[in-house]
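Memo to structure team: turn this sequence into structure tokens by end of day. - J.P.
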Amino acid sequence: MYGLQAIAAHNGWAMALAGALIVFSGLVILSFVISQLHRILAFFEKKPVDVEPPEDKPGFLLPKPFPEDINEIVRLYKPLVEALGETFYLSELYEMSRKNDFPHPHITLTALRESKILVSDGNGVFSWNPSTENDDIENVEG
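Reply from structure team:
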């Protein structure tokens, strides 16, 4: 006995179907695990919760709709810059703005550089433009 008759006589069709179902269910389970992997990793990478509430940080309270006016943004970033000192690296200001939940720090720092509020002193060191402290930004750009 050979061919399809031998397969039917020895339960070959049932074994082939069972094998296909095992492989398919294994692939379904694997795809489900991969799709939920970000949740599993987030569970193990829980960040420690700050003990200090943000209300205790004077000068770092942000308005709910973050202002689009560059003068208001300068006023909000000024305490961060003062905490860094007279000269600082842009990466330090970026990290401080991220830690204090400032939205879109990269875009904001780019806008501050283009408005000549953050001035490069060379070698990657920046300083706050002193002429912007009391003047409007429109006067500095002109």
